[in-house]
Amino acid sequence: MAALQQRAAAARGWLDLVRGWLPADLAREVTSAARRGAVLTVYVASAAWAARLRFELDGVLAQARGVEPGVTEVRVKILPPAR
Questions:
Q1: What is the pLDDT of residues 17-56, one digit of tens each?
Q2: What is this structure's pTM?
Q3: Which residues have a Cβ under 8 Å from the Cβ of 24 and sit 6 or more positions away?
Q4: What is the pLDDT at residue 8?
Q5: How many Å apart are CA 22 and CA 16, to the nearest integer?
Q6: Which of 3, 8, 42, 67 has the maximal Cβ count within 10 Å?
Q7: How far apart, in Å, do the first and last CA atoms of the chain sit?
Q8: In this structure, what DSSP letter does residue 24 have?
Q9: Residue 2: which pLDDT band, with cuts at 50, 70 and 90?
Q10: Domain tally for the chain?
Q11: At what angle do helices 57-67 and 47-54 cross, to 10 degrees?
C-alpha cells in the first residue's frame, strides 16, 4: 500500500511540474503525468491537445531533465479526464 501511495504522490508532483511549464490553456488539458525509468509520459484530454503539446516537448524535456537528469524522453498519450 505504501508503494502505491508513493507512486501516486510522485505522479501528482510530476503533474504539477508539467502544468507549470506549459501555457495555461494547455496546462488545463493535462490530465496526468508519470515517470517510469527514463521516460516521462504526459497525458492530455484529447488528440487535439496532444498535437498541441507535441510543439512544447523540447521545453518540457529540458525542464524535466532539470528536475531529474535521468529523463531522456517525453511521451504524449491521451487520457480524457474522469467524469
A1: 999 999 999 999 999 999 999 999 999 999 999 999 999 9
A2: 0.89
A3: none
A4: 76
A5: 10
A6: 42
A7: 25
A8: H
A9: confident
A10: 1
A11: 70
- Which CATH number characterizes residue 57's domain? 3.30.300
Whether 74 and 60 have beta carbons less than 8 Å apart is answered as yes
Is 10 a member of any domain?
A: yes
Does 83 fall in a domain? no
Strand order in the sheet with 30-36: 30-36, 39-44, 73-78
Domain that holds residue 30: 2-78
**Contact, 46 vs 15, CB < 8 A?**
no
Query: Phi then psi for 19, rounded to 5 degrees?
Result: -60, -35
**Domain-located, residue 39:** yes
The verdict on residue 37 lying in a domain is: yes
